[in-house]
Structures are given as structure tokens and as C-alpha cells.
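Progress note, sequence design subtask.
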């Protein structure tokens, strides 16, 4: 999750706290992408649907939606400098996340196992260049995601 650091600035004898979030949308995208890969790997090892698989699917959907929501924030700096082509290329590269999250949400809510598996395979293909060790330290990022999904 995001790390927030505190800086205390003294101005005319009064202390003020400034919160700085060093986590950028790009860093979040990378972290979430790796977490999605880990979750899909574990999901594919499961043989039956249960609470754990519901958490996994909910996490993947929420993570894709989070990536999609960070796209515009990621390109703001490029657009301020006039790098429109670079910003548009980035948007086109990641626009699939929102559409995939919608399709996966629909398949999950209507319990369409074949469509779910198809979407997960397509997601893994999109993330094929990202390497995540089997000895990662991310734990199980999907735990409790189904509760958030239902809210």
C-alpha cells in the first residue's frame, strides 16, 4: 500500500505537517501488476471455487480498476510538457485494463467459469514481460478483497 511520510515544517513558530505520498501511479501500477500475476498463478492452481477463489477474482478486478483509474494521473506530467504522443501511447497501452475489469466483473457476477479463465489467460499474456519470482515477498494480496468488492 502507499507509504505516507511526514515532514514537519516550522514557520513563524508554528508547526505544520505536510503529507507527502512517494507512491506514484506508475509505481502502484507495477506493484498491482505483480500482485495480479501472483494471484492468477495461485488461482490456476485451485481445483474448485470457494471463498479463497472469490477473494482472488475480486482482487484482480479491483486491481485492474485501480490501474485504469491511475492512467490519467500517470500522463499528467507528460501532457503539461506537451508530450501528447507519449501520453496517448501510454493510454492506448493500458486502456485494456478497464475493459478487461468490466468483462471479468460480468463473468464473475454471473459465474461464467470459461469466460473467467479466458480473461485470466489474456491478462497473463498482457503481463508476459513482467517477471515475478516464486519466492516473492508480497504474501497473499487477495485476502479480504471479496468484502471490498461487495461494498
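Output:
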Amino acid at each position: 500500500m502507499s507509504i505516507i511520510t511526514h515532514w514537519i515544517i516550522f514557520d513563524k513558530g508554528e508547526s505544520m505537517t505536510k503529507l507527502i505520498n512517494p507512491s506514484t501511479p506508475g509505481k502502484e501500477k507495477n506493484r498491482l501488476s505483480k500482485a495480479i500475476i501472483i494471484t492468477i498463478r495461485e488461482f490456476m492452481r485451485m481445483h474448485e471455487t470457494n471463498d479463497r477463489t472469490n477473494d482472488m477474482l475480486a482482487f484482480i478486478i479491483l486491481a485492474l480498476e485501480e490501474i485504469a483509474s491511475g492512467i490519467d494521473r500517470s500522463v499528467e506530467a507528460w501532457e503539461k510538457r506537451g508530450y501528447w504522443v507519449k501520453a496517448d501511447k501510454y493510454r492506448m497501452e493500458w486502456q485494456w485494463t478497464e475493459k478487461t475489469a468490466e468483462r471479468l466483473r460480468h463473468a464473475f457476477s454471473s459465474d461464467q467459469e470459461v469466460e473467467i479463465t479466458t480473461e485470466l489467460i489474456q491478462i497473463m499474456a498482457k503481463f508476459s514481460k513482467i517477471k515475478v519470482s516464486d519466492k516473492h515477498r508480497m504474501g497473499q494480496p487477495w485476502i479480504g478483497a471479496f468484502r471490498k468488492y461487495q461494498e
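The chain is about 65% helix and 10% strand. Work on this subtask will continue into the next period as scheduled.
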